[in-house]
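User: two proteins, same treatment. go.

Assistant:
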Amino acid sequence: MPDPDPKLDPKNQQPDNANDLDEEDDVLEEDDDEEEDDDEEEDDDVLFEPATPRAVKLKMDALVRRMLIGPVSIHVHDVIIKGNTKTKGYIIEAEALEALKKANTMQELLRASNAVNSRLKLLGLFDSVMITLDSGPLEIPGSTNVIIEVEEARNRLSGEIGAYTKAEAKSSSVEGSVKYKNLLGYGDLWDGSIAYGFDHSAEVSAGVYLPRLKALVAPVTARVDLWTEDWLKFSSYKEQSIGLSLGLFSNRYHNLEYHLAWRTLTDPSQMSSSSVRMQLGHNLLSSLKYTLKIDRRNSLVRPTRGYAFVSKTQIGGLAPDSYSLRFLRQEFDLRYAIPLGFYHAALNFGISSGVICGNGFLNKSTAPPERFFLGGNLSPVSALGGPKALWGFKTRGLGPCEPRRQVSNENANAVGSDFLGGELAITALADLSFDLPSRWFREKGIHAHLFACAGNVAKLTVNECQNFSIQKFKESFRSSVGVGIVIPISLFCMEFNYCYILKKFDHDHAKAGFWLTFSRPS
């Protein structure tokens, strides 16, 4: 009789349990596979999500650690420019592309990006410049894209006004200018200016500056000017000129310009000396001027270390015309500043020289506007570029002179002389600048200085060289010393000096006393 409740034999049941476990394992493995597939899909989705700030920070920290250890190789794949709605793209590329493409490491690329950012800001076309480094194509490992995003200037119109003293002017003048940027989208700068001197001199000019054209590497400038100058008080003539100047080549150290001007010299007083009367009338200036300028000083207003050197060469007479002025003019200027280590003091030395070889040299005189004239209400420290000024001497206040023509016997004692200038000029200066005790003065840049200067000018034409001797030239040097306060302002530099004349001649126009000077660093 069968057992109504048979007991299950474990041995008989084991295979069945094993089969069940196998089935469960298969189910679990399928579930695990599904979960792994889901995880992989989730991981794939995460790769396309934006990196979290923490992940970006970790990557940046790792990159910085690698850069501290050594160079990190990188390749610039592309340079992308954004935001230039008006400015032509090649203007920005010309300032950035070559420097960025040369970078082979991350360190070099960061330095190049910083330099490019500065150059683009110096163009004056953008309110802001931002350079971003982005990852390059995935198929090119170690590559990056450089994104340059600019914000073009909203206010393109600007202007300024100020009072200045020029080396070639006999008094200060008020000057105003208006500028408009990027009219054509080539980074061009258009400006118009007007100047009126307290001596009734006037100048009106307009020009354009193109930083870079596709066919030319260097910037291009063009300027038209019309000006008049009254030299009746010093040299018995008035000068009127209308001209055009073209900047042919310019970079950090070199500058090449072409000048074309039609000039007229007149004598309304009819009292000019015979030397001046020979130069009255019309003449044509067609010249090429080359300037080499190396300025390693730490400041233009108050240099405390470094040196500067300027060389100017001008060749006149490039037009085949009988009115064309033919001459060769050469100028040198050397400055050196030595820090003294106390009160921010520094000692500045300078020497300037110039010589002119005119048409026929020893037989004919050069035109008065091309000669060297020393003196003027100008600071020799700020004036860099040739022999110009001496402290304490008025404009055209020293050098060769000739009595004016006497019109009547009534004014015989008040005839005076015409200063003729010269073809050889040399000046030298020494200036000791130092801080004032007050902290307020130091914060504003106001400082004091002690100075000494000397100079002379001589003629080398019209047989004057036959009587020229180095000994006489040295003995006829004029000199002065003084003390003063320098007040730098954003638009110009103001000096309040007391000058004492050490040596002068009877016909020189020099004054011991207080002088107030407004000038711009050159």
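Protein 2:
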Amino acid sequence: MEEVDKILIHSLRQAGTAVPPEVQSVRDLTPELVVEAAVRCLRAVNPTLGAPLSPLLPPGISARFRLASDLAAACQELGFGGDVGYQTFLYSSEHDTRRLLLFLVEKLPRDESESGTEPPGKSGALLRAIGARIREQLGMPWVPPLCRTPRLQRLQGTSCLHPFTTCPLVLPQSGGPPELQEYYGGAAPPVPAQPPLCTRTPPALLETHMAQLSACHDWEAEWGGPGLASRLPPQEYAGRKRLRARLRALEPLRQACPPRPPGPPLDPAWLQEAFGAGGAGGALPKGSRFTRTQHLTHEQDPQILLQQIQAAAETQHPSKGAEEDAGARQASEEAALEQTLAQLDAAIEGCRGEMRDAQLSLTQAEAEVQQGRLALGGREDALRLKAQAIELLPDAQSNMAKLQLVVEASGRRIVSLAGQWERHRGPLLAQYRHLRALRDSAQLESSRRLSEIRTLHERSRSAADEARRKEELYKTLVAELEALPRDISRAVYTQRILEIVGNIRKQKEEISKILVDTRALQKEINSLVGKLERTFSVTDELLFKVGRPTLGGPICTWGAHIH
């Protein structure tokens, strides 16, 4: 059983479960590891079943029960025949855990390299060579370009390295408004064309992929803990989280901005006072956090500091009317900020539309430029030919003679090349015919083997049907055997069997006596029949002798009737 546990734990590690090295048997698995292993295996076997489940066991009791119940339902839907419930994952025994994990590991998809389905022939050899070359390159350490030997230059290249500089990428996403999907489908540039330099494409892709992975891992960790404890659907939980982040971002703005006077939402004077670089009323000065701290600590007058402390003490104990005024002012500020935010959203949407239109115009202009370049390239070739022809015009006779010599030399070269081709063509044609014959024979052999395989499949199918029929017959007989009464002892059946055997023996004896009497009676009948035949013969002769001179035919007829 220890070997089975080692193989099982190795398979779980290959499936992505973080099993610690000190865990050597199923007995050492904690409920957290069991839940993580089950979720990883379900995601590998059936992603639709394992995707909604979290591999992290939440801290709350109700969330644990809910996750364990969902895991049990997924295992039953996958085909697990044993008893499985939330207790299998939270309070399970070693036997139940081993049975469940063995079932999940057996359902894991097998690796093609392990199953031996490598394509035969030259393609399989090519794949093996590619794999060996990749393993060789991965096992070789990186060497700076100036220190590379010729062999390392062939493997790692001779070009210098480029700085790892990234840039934002716009990747297509599912969902969203139809205008955005139309932009992704037509006007959006491809990913390799978005970076300004081709050397920035791999770093940008790596950074984008890493950002997506980290976001996915953060969401799994947060949904496995506070998300499940909140008992909310994922969409509602994410919406509430965005709302809380938005309110946290607006709170410093409300505290830093001065009270807005009545007037239009975007008053320039109020905006300059709220976000200007210096001024009264809570302006936000430019500079780092250190400069602000130093300014507040070392450069303020003590009288000013005392006045600020007294003002803060007064604001800590406001009156009821002041609280109501502050609440009304805060509500009006919130409404104004919401209206401003809506206007900014509308302006952003308008800018996005203009960007899409500009991108579409840019794409059309690039296409036109490409067509112009193609047309210009063809005209440049024609111009080059005409320039060469014009250069040959002043000395036309000599140039025509030179061209004639070049044409004749080219003709002789073509003839020699044709002869060389014929010399090479014969062996190649013979080799082609030989290979074609080998291919035809291989196809015949493969078709014959295919027919044999189909025959074997038919036999195996019939054997499976026969085995299934016998299994059903066996189950029927077992059910009949179990249905028979078991309260009768064996001695009663033995006594009845002995009585039946005795009756059979008596019947055999009676039948033997009857057969003996029948044989004796048959012998007596046979002797009487013979005696009768002889008597008839003698009587017939006597009647013929006696009735010949007197009665003649009637006496013979009477004798025949008597017989």
